[in-house]
Amino acid sequence: MAAREPDRRDGRPSLEQILRLIAPGMLDVVVAPRGSGVPVADVVLYDPGEERDDGTWAASGLILLAVGVDAASPEAVDVLRGAERAGAAAVVLRRGARGPR
What we know:
Blueprint: H1 15-22, E1 42-45, H2 54-57, E2 62-70, H3 74-86, E3 90-94
Parallel strand pairs: 1-2, 2-3
């Protein structure tokens, strides 16, 4: 069942539109509880070394780039929970081990 497309009077692009634009075929949507039509307000980079305020880095409608966080790590669970509480549109995590160091 397709998610209902949100009202676009605010001019914000949807998560689906952004994914098609910046990463066609490169990112896998694993879970989209609010649907891929959710409007996106901004993109924020999550730095694992910084203290964070959940309301700032994962506010409603933000895409949170947690590229330094392995999706299989305990830290990923904390990031995902914080993003859910704040109503983030999406979280991007690194999958698998990093390449050679």
